Amino acid sequence: MDPILIGEILAALMFFGVIGFLLLGFPVAFTLAGVSLLFGAVGLALDIFDPSNFGALPNRYIGFMTNEVLVAVPLFIFMGVMLERSQIAEQLLLTMGKLFGNLRGGLGISVVLVGAMLAASTGVVGATVVTMGLISLPAMLRAGYDPKLASGVICASGTLGQIIPPSTVLIFMGDMLSGINSQVQMAKGNFAPVPVSVGDLFAGALLPGMLLVSLYLLWVIFKAITDPESCPATPVPADEKGELLREVFVALVPPLLLVLAVLGSILGGIATPTEAASVGAVGAMILAALRWRLSFKTLNETVIATATITSMVFIILLGASVFSVVFRMMGGDNLVHEFLSNLPGGTMAAVVVVMMIMFFLGFILDTFEIIFIVIPITAPVLLALDVDPVWLGVLVGVNLQTSFLTPPFGFALFYLRGVAPATLPTSAIYKGILPFVCLQIVAIAILFIFPGIVTWLPRLIAN
């Protein structure tokens, strides 16, 4: 049998083998590396894989550790965890709930707006869903909200950190797409390609993020009009109204200024994402200190949580690197290129297929795991077909956010289930999220039809 064909068959089997072992519950990072080494050994026995290819891994790992762009990841995680542990996020939720409480659906509106704020200040999905689940869900249930609506609003708003900058997912994708785009353009004879940066993805994701926030708000307003009993008003007691404006100012303005300073400096070209992330981390500590919430215990918990989350992400990245080397050297990239290039429907059909694969992988894999596996395999093909890298990156972000919400395996649903009261049935969480999954699909369709929503702001800033 042709060695090239054997290699492609092994590459395809390796991909499905990884999925199979993950379904059995094995850790992702070790599964990626272990299965890849196993298939590499089979390839070596069949004389179609050269183990010297692993010689490039140490330099790749050193490159990850010394990559200045990726330094922004632990800094943004630190910023988000500090805002959560110092109870700044909690105060923001409670205060915004009072501000909109006089309106039907007011608590739901406040959860969406605070979710967007926390997304723009943390970029950590799990922490946001848990925080809002612990604080907002009991308040909404006590106010008489439909448990399905309350669950759906919290899960959907909590996952906005996937797409609204400074998303850690966008940082990794921006770094990966930058290198892939350069390689693809040079292969096409363009030796001076327009660079793609993390800042470009941040700018491209801003309007789609606002689009999702608008769709969520419209749904809550629609429910308030058509089914007012599902989201009743919660009027503020008369004796608290006098202090409400001061509470809103104290709770809202400092974190909002921090977000504007971080994102504004990146989008304005004043600072790199890493520099802005360091400002955000220091700013979060200053906000905690001003509210007398910065203690050794808080700082210690924040540092440990940051180290844990960062280590998890980078260990997965290292395992994915082993997978990528074996898959590519066995001819898997050629197999993917032929498959996507020959699809009926051309470039858009190829994009749709990749989005569907990522969506279904989102049922069993975390976001980082998906982008570390799928982006290196599929992005070179799509970019070679002249897909805009910024549009592709943002579309992937919105798509993965959708899979993060979709029953029965959406991770956001599990986060909420873990902190929800036992009286709230899991079926209510699943039913409540379905309208928001539909809104996500609407958003993806809008971005397909009007790609300028993604590309307009990066081009405006570049000019």
Topology:
Layout: H1 3-23, H2 28-45, H3 57-66, H4 72-85, H5 88-100, H6 106-121, H7 125-142, H8 147-158, H9 168-187, H10 198-226, H11 238-267, H12 273-290, H13 296-329, H14 332-341, H15 346-361, H16 367-384, H17 389-405, H18 411-419, H19 426-449, H20 452-462
Helix pairs in contact: 1-2, 1-13, 2-13, 3-13, 4-12, 4-13, 5-6, 5-7, 5-11, 6-7, 6-8, 6-10, 7-8, 7-18, 8-19, 9-10, 9-16, 9-17, 10-17, 10-19, 10-20, 11-12, 13-16, 14-16, 15-16, 15-17, 17-19
Task: Give the key terms.
463 residues; mainly alpha; globular
Would you give an account of this structure?
This protein has one domain. The chain has 463 residues and is an all-alpha fold.
Structure summary, number of beta strands: 0
Helices and strands, in order, run as HHHHHHHHHHHHHHHHHHHH
Separation of the first and last Cα atoms: 54 Å
What share of the residues does DSSP label as strand, in percent? under 5%
Helicity range of the residues? Answer: over 70%
Report the structural category: mainly alpha
Query: Globular, elongated, flat, extended or rod-shaped: what is the shape?
Result: globular
Total domain units: 1
SS element count, helices: 20
The low-confidence runs, each spanning 5 or more residues with pLDDT under 50, are none
Q: Tell me the major beta sheet.
A: none
Could you tell me the mean pLDDT? 86
Radius of gyration: 23 Å
Task: Give a summary of the structure in a few sentences.
It is built from 20 helices and no strands. It is mainly alpha-helical and 463 residues long.
